[in-house]
Amino acid sequence: MDIIWEIIIGFLVGLVARALMPGSQSLGLIMTTLLGVVGSLVATHLGVAVGFYEAGSSARFIGSVVGAMIVLFVYGLIAKKK
After folding, report:
1. What is the DSSP string of 65-77?
2. Any stretches that span the bilayer, and where are they (predicted)?
3. Phi, psi values for residue 21, rounded to 5°
4. Residue in 57, 59, 55, 31 with CA at minimum distance from that of residue 43
5. In whole angstroms, what separates CA 25 from the centre of its chain?
6. Hey, what long-range contacts does 74-81 have (CB within 8 A, 24 or more apart)?
7. What is the per-residue pLDDT for 82?
8. What DSSP state is assigned to residue 56?
9. I need a surface site. Which of 6, 50, 60, 62 has the fewest CB within 10 A?
């Protein structure tokens, strides 16, 4: 059941990150969900490295959105080079 919640929250995080980022992102449902899940992972690892979170804890919603925006920015840089 936890995996289903992670996917749902990842999708919501991905939607919020796409709405906050300027420009047009042509991502589908699956890519938006992956964006949110990967953004949450990035936020968790960066938060532990910087000291925002303790080891073993996960990023909250706002941290996940920030992480997803970072991933979306990097994705935009890579997509422009192609």
Report:
1. HHHHHHHHHHHHH
2. 27-53, 59-78
3. -80, 135
4. 59
5. 14
6. 75/35, 76/21, 76/23, 76/25
7. 64
8. T
9. 50
What is the identity of the amino acid at 44? T
DSSP classification of residue 59: -
* CB neighbour burial string for 40-66, b if at least 16 within 10 angstroms, e if fewer: bbbbbebbbeeeebeeeeebeeebbbb
Q: What pLDDT shows up at residue 77? A: 87
What mean pLDDT do residues 58-75 have? 85
The tokens for 26 are 């042509």
Provide mean pLDDT across the span 3-10. Answer: 84
Q: In this model, does residue 15 exceed pLDDT 80?
A: yes
Reported as a single tens digit per residue, the pLDDT across 46-55 is 888 888 878 7
